[in-house]
Amino acid sequence: MERVVVLMALLGLLLASATTLADKDDWDIYSFHINSTVSSRYATTVITSRVANRMNDSKEIEFHVRIPKNAFISKFRMLIDGQFYDGVVKGKEKAQQQYTEAVSRGQSAGLVSSVGRTMEEFKTSVTLAAHKKVTFELTYEELLKRRLGKYELQIHARPMQPVKDFKQNIRG
């Protein structure tokens, strides 16, 4: 049985951030968790970001994640006011059309696109009412590649602001 080595780094391949179109004082990422489970050479990673709108007005909150190109998103959902909203995976052309239509109607929508040769980019946004919170939860899976005789899982996170509750957990 081969040994799997898990490496953690907090720099560049996985860019996970919640941003908004207004000033960063308008919102707060109060929790950011990364949980990965590695079995043999297969990894499942769950990113959970909790964001609060601190303003007296509604604000658009964006969730933006970069994942390895060989990974695939198996689940995405948002929790707002106790209600879960599950994402649906669709074909590229149909997804682009529905994304464009949803954005033009002011609805929340997400889209995955390529970023260079090694990354995929996932973005979604939601308009969040004043003093409300949203939880973004993204699950992706990947078959790990062997490098120098070891399997490597790289996780690079940049939440783009200080986070009080930042946790990383890797089981393997």
UniProtKB/TrEMBL annotation:
Pfam families, per the entry: VIT
Signal peptide segment: 1-22
Alphabetical list of InterPro entries matching this protein: ITIH (IPR050934), VIT (IPR013694)
VIT domain location: 13-142
Highest taxon in the source lineage: Eukaryota
PANTHER family given in the database record: INTER-ALPHA-TRYPSIN INHIBITOR HEAVY CHAIN FAMILY MEMBER, INTER-ALPHA-TRYPSIN INHIBITOR HEAVY CHAIN H4
Protein name (database record): VIT domain-containing protein
Organism ancestry: Eukaryota, Metazoa, Chordata, Craniata, Vertebrata
